[in-house]
Amino acid sequence: MRTTMPEPILDFGRSVDSALQRAGGIGLARDAEADYAAADLALKALSQVGMYDIDPRDDLDSAAAAAELCRVAGAQAAPCPVVGIILRDPADKPFALVSDECPIIDHAAAAPLWRAATLSGDVYEARVVQRTGSNLSPFAMKVGLTRLDDEPASPQDVQLALALSAFQLLGTGQQALELAIKHTREREQFGRPLSGFQVIRHSVADLSVGLEGLALLCRFALWQIFTGSSDALPDALAAKHEAQRVVRNVLRMSQQFHGAAGLADEYDISVLARHAQPALRLPTDMTTTLGHLRAAIEERGFEGLYAPEHAHRAALTTGEAR
Amino acid sequence: MSLHDTGQEVAGETETGLDDLAQEVRKWCAVRDATGWAARMAAADPQARADLQREWFLRLAEQGYAYPHWPAAWGGGRSRAEQLVIARELIRGGAPRLDLHFVALYHAAATLIVAGTPEQRETHLPAIRTGRRWCQGFSEPEAGSDLASLRCRAVPAEGGYRVTGHKTWSTGAAHADMCLLLARTGGPGRAGISYFLLDLASPGVEVRPIRNASGQEEFCEIFCNDVFVPEESRVGAENEGWRIANATLSEERGLTMLERSEEMATGMQHLVRLVAGLAPGSREEGLRILGRYSERVEAFRLLVARVLDASVEGADVAAASILKLVYSELLQDISDAGLSLAGLDGHVDGTSWTGTWQSGHWFADYLGSWEWTIGGGANDVLRNVVGERVLGLPRGGTR
Ligand SMILES: Cc1cc2nc3c(=O)[nH]c(=O)nc-3n(C[C@H](O)[C@H](O)[C@H](O)COP(=O)(O)OP(=O)(O)OC[C@H]3O[C@@H](n4cnc5c(N)ncnc54)[C@H](O)[C@@H]3O)c2cc1C
Which of A48, B18, B296, B316 would you label with B345, given CA atoms 20 to 30 Å apart? Predict the structure, then answer.
């Protein structure tokens, strides 16, 4: 596995980033709460940089481009269902993972009909029944499910949905860290910048290490989906679970470093943290994700990067899909 | 009073008549439909909610349940054990929290009683009893944790002062009538600060709400532009404001923690209900979480009782800081664990308003819990207080 993304993919990420920033950046999420038309601006920006031309199922490079797009969308809190659109079906229905007990889809209103699947692969058609009633995560909506007697969902779709959502959270976490660094450098109390207090420096350092680990795990999951010798579900679940754990903490700490400003919507961190909640909690919250991960490991084993037989293969492979 | 006695008191066994009082409050909550009031407030828009809250407050006041902690001469005079029973039974009875009257009942009252003149008490305490609301105007954009660097200025003028400055994060200011204001009358630092009672209706005062992460407009900015404040609205001597602010802050913090700890103990039922409803596969994890938090909540309740007893003769800022540290982090941990266990069910069908951990709606309470590690002194700063004043460590990062 390559531990860094190839340069052309990083380049693509930069163009996605500037397109979203030009469209309004995190402000779009803020605006979309009052008027959903702002969400269209995000969609338009993403479509101009080629979101609709990427099919992550094609090969590892395409998946990596999709992942980079999701990461950047997460960093900008883009108010649209990027993972769902990227994994849409041939009839253009976006795809979402749901829990059949309490099905909720983030930005469900972006399409009249969705193709939905549970983590165990049962396939449904989903349509919006109501907003969640909570004004706290404005776009997550309850959906009604109709069971389709199709084949079970393709394992690749399920795994990609988990991995891409982990990338999206990774971007959110990286942005939260950036905001924390910027704020604690600029904000002065007791005659010095907050970043001059060691407890803050240490915490920020811990957060950045956590995110580095998450980034590697996300890339590994993606690589495993295309090149692994075994089923990559445990890897995809591990990436998602780690994203839920790490990014939740980064958001909390970054808000804490902002003081009361972290709770005021005039500051980006407040908007980012709220809009990240659906991705942090869907299709299952951390505890339940961990349950799924345990079950998947029991059933299929967990090869991991450093499994003995795997280790030299990983070292020899350059990151190209075989 | 020993910790052992206090422990029994928590269980409500040492004073006679407590059981009767508990029953009385319980019955009152049922007759007055406390849960109905809470539900109506949760559903109301901000202005309607504020009106409902005043009506509810007046009913509590009439019954003697709104300020049992005040001195007897002002209509309180209940023992600590009685206060505890009243707080606990109101919470158990589902009564809504009086957040908009909170600063008036605790902070303003403590300030007036501890440091006010007889005239100031006569003017303001009865008005609080009939529903006048207060907010706190301490923090400024550039002065948060480092409050002593505040810049809002009060310049002597004929018969009083003219005040100019910018306050922020003032909770409930949009619905308040009066403001506890700290402003600079002297040189830099703590020694140049005075304490004022500001009438928010004064010409030159402007209040602007700030939208917060839960979508509420709970805290506000207050702009003072050459506002006249009469001499008799200063509390204590000129430049004595810092000392007074500290004394009254700790006075109020201990008492409010009593209420919060009861709220938390009662709130454990939400966690119990949640764990009881878990699928067999998650039950074990749920029980482990339940065990862990029951233990911490109980320890917190005992800590509150101990700190309150120790501070009977004089409030202790450092001890009060410990309570807020423990409470805020415990609250966040429980809300987070609860939301994680409740999963998606904790996300839907929320009430639109919740103060602390009392809605039984995990998502709202999780977001609400974020406030507690910042408001009233950020936790890092409280840790400094504990290190320096309790443990006697050398002074570190702060002045
Ligand atoms: C819900 C809520 C209600 C509030 N209500 C009121 C009110 O009614 N009236 C009022 O006047 N104010 C109110 N406040 C403001 C509150 O008092 C301040 O937010 C608080 O004192 C922190 O100041 P700050 O927000 O400027 O954060 P900052 O002081 O900028 O601190 C930001 C971060 O830096 C850390 N930090 C600061 N100094 C140090 C240090 N020396 N060492 C290590 N870390 C440090 C803090 O812990 C924090 O994490 C409220 C705040 C909240 C969140």
Answer: B296
Query: Tell me, what DSSP letter sits at residue B279?
Result: -
What would you report as the CA-atom Rg of chain A, rounded to the nearest whole angstrom?
19
Q: What is the pTM of this model?
A: 0.91
Q: Tally Cβ neighbours within 10 Å of residue B294.
A: 14
Q: Which residues of A touch B359 (CB under 8 A)?
A: none
Q: Check pLDDT > 60 for residue B349.
A: no
Q: What is the enclosing helix (H) or strand (E) of B39?
A: helix B34-43
Q: What is the ipTM of this complex?
A: 0.89
Report whether A103 contacts A65 (CB < 8 A): no
The token pair at A205 is 């350092």
The reply to whether omega before A283 is within 30° of 0 (cis) is yes
Ligand 1 atom nearest A194 alpha carbon: 34
Q: Are strands A188-189 and A123-131 parallel, antiparallel or unpaired?
A: unpaired
Tokens of A122: 């049962």
N-terminal to C-terminal alpha carbon distance within chain A: 12
E strand or H helix that includes residue B82: helix B80-92
Range of the domain at A265: 155-314
CB atoms within 10 A of CB B276: 11
Beta-carbon contacts of B287 under 8 Å, excluding residues fewer than 6 positions away, are: B275
Q: Is residue A16 located within the same domain as residue A81? A: yes
Distance CA A187, CA A191 (A): 10
User: Residue B234: beta bridge partners?
Assistant: B196
CATH value at residue A202: 1.20.140.10
* Residue B325 alpha carbon to ligand 1 centre in Å: 13
**B349·A197 Cβ contact <8 A:** no
Q: Please tell me whether residues A122 and A208 are part of one structural domain.
A: no
Q: Report d(CA B245, CA A236) in Å as an integer.
A: 54
From the centroid of its chain, how far is CA A9?
17
Percent of chain A with pLDDT over 70: 91
Q: At what angle do helices B34-43 and B46-63 cross, to 10 degrees?
A: 160
Cross-chain CB nearest to B144 (options A102, A259, A284): A259
Range of B206's domain?
Answer: 133-239
Count of CB atoms within 10 A of residue A151's CB?
8
Distance of alpha carbon A106 from alpha carbon A188, whole angstroms: 38
Q: Over the stretch B262-298, which tens digit does the pLDDT of each residue have?
A: 888 888 888 888 888 888 877 888 899 999 999 999 9
